[in-house]
Amino acid sequence: MTAIDPARTVSVVGTGTMGQGIAQVALLAGHPVRLYDAAPGRAAEAGRGIAARLGRLVDKGKLDAARRDAALERLRPATDLAELADSALVIEAILEQLEAKQKLFGALESVVPDDCLLATNTSSLSVTAVGGTLRLPGRLVGLHFFNPAPLLPLVEVVRGFATDQAAADRARATVAAWGKMPVSCADTPGFIVNRVARPFYAEAFRVLEEGGADPATIDAVLRESGGFAMGPFELTDLIGQDVNNAVTRSVYEAFFHDPKFAPSLAQQRLVQAGLLGRKTGRGWYDHAEGAERPAPHTAEPCDAPAALVLHGELPGPAAALRAMAEEAGIKVTQVTGSPSAGFFELPGGTPLHLTNGGSATTNDPSRPRIHFDLALDYRTCARVALAPSDAAPPQDVRAATGLFQALGKRVSVIDDVPGMIVARTVVMLVDLAFDAVGRTVAAAEDVDTAMRLGVNYPLGPLEWGRALGAGWVETVLSYLHEEYPGGRYAACQPLRRRAAVEESLL
Q1: Domain shared by 321 and 178, yes or no
Q2: Is the dihedral of CA 40, 42, 48, 50 positive or negative?
Q3: In a domain? residue 418
Q4: Domain total in the chain
Q5: Which residues are catalytically annotated?
Q6: Calpha distance 141→170 (Å, rounded)
Q7: 351-354 and 33-36: which strand pairing?
């Protein structure tokens, strides 16, 4: 399917930040662009705003002045919907109200030709429902741009239940011609990104609610160990607690209260208190001018153990730690005939395990044990979290801390919460990604692309799952499920199938 010819008109209805951004993208792709807004004078004002932004790009040397001038020649504000009659594509970016969108598209059908493609930029409503009252619902697609639209490359191309495949294909080709990265998905709550990303926020909030660690420490562990660009507390302060909470609640309601998508009571309390993040000056953090940002909990320097005993082989994600310890001058003696889930034995006799999703304490409260958290890459990460069991002796906690410090890591000692921080977050992301692919929401490649580009994850969750092994992911989820019965951590069927296939190949 070919893209819409750049000589054809693209119209944008709704001229807020998103509408202006989409219009700018279409303009710079060469289209004549019409701007319409129901509020008098708003379209003309938006046109001036776009001109100012293009001017700043010229000043910074990012846009040629001649190209700017040509683009502005093609930009026309409209005062009536009838002026959009020559459109080949109309994209709406109005308020997130189903009835308002249905009314708009109904009015557009009486104006534009039958071959005009209609698109909604909704992020939370059903594309099927938006087009449900149309005479020709097959030509309506979702084009979910990410804010700011001129900068972020991802666009989710959403097929409603009645959307013609030809319409979806043409929309995808057009978005690609505009220099964006389109991903195709079915009309499901949250589409790809807002569906799969929920655990990134929810698991961090649950760790906080359980007293595992404070926001600054959780953010630091997810950034410096997990490889995420921002932690969930600082990110939701940037997004707005009300916005993030509304998306979470919308997805939760749309999935009929599936426990995997349950909202956070702690975040709800922030919203009720009006502490919405940067825009109100305070959220999880104080953003007032001159306010000091709280530091993550970081352990004081400790002596590294001179020697360790390695029982078995460390699980795949942690396999590099043996060589790293030896490179740091620590003698490692391996015991043969040990269990497959290997661990270090510290000088005081305490086992040091990669977290398996369970608590370090609850299975055997009298036995000392220390868990360490998952890292994206143990060689390059800057921080590692430790969770001692209640019986772990302080000298072995210090030895474990000194071990990772000798490997060049900052260490955060947190409370004994099942799955710790990075591990429980990542396995839930992997589980929801497997579930989305299994339910034909999107192809695996599109899910990974969406999560890398839409929310800047260091790896796509399916790619991450392959690196960890589906069996390891399923094991962590199974232990979490034992600790928290109720279904939230029950591994989805496609993930269980993949784990079974992997096991059969061993």
Answers
A1: no
A2: negative
A3: no
A4: 2
A5: 123, 144, 156, 194
A6: 10
A7: unpaired
Report pLDDT digits (tens) over 262-301: 999 999 999 999 999 999 999 999 999 999 999 999 999 9
The single residue listed with the structure tokens 């009314």 is 103
Residue 366 has pLDDT above 90, yes or no: no
The amino acid present at 171, given as its one-letter code, is A
Nearest Cα to Cα of residue 175 among 29, 32, 54: 29
Residue after which a domain boundary falls, among 358, 379, 413: 413
Residue 180 has pLDDT above 90, yes or no: yes
Label each residue of 115-132 as H, E or C.
CCEEEECCCCCCHHHHCC
Q: Confirm if 378 and 318 have CB atoms less than 8 A apart.
A: yes
Lowest mean pLDDT among 140-144, 276-280, 339-343: 339-343
The side-by-side arrangement of strands in the sheet containing 181-186 is 75-78, 33-36, 9-13, 87-92, 117-120, 140-145, 154-159, 181-186
Asked which of 254-258, 362-366, 431-435 is least confident by mean pLDDT, the reply is 362-366
Residue (of 174, 200, 203, 121) closest to 4 by Cα position: 174
CATH number of the CATH domain containing 125 = 3.40.50.720
Continuous segment of H or E residues that includes residue 75: strand 75-78
How far apart are alpha carbons 385 and 374 in whole angstroms?
8
Q: Which domain holds residue 362?
A: 307-413
Nearest to 431 by CA among 458, 456, 464, 387: 464
Burial class for 55, CB neighbours closer than 10 Å (0-12, 13-18, 19+)? middle
Does residue 312 share a domain with residue 171?
A: no
Among 138, 165, 187, where does a domain finish?
Answer: 187
pLDDT confidence band for 429 (50 / 70 / 90)? very high
Q: How confident is the model at residue 336 (pLDDT cuts 50, 70, 90)?
A: confident
For position 314, which CATH number holds? 3.30.750.190
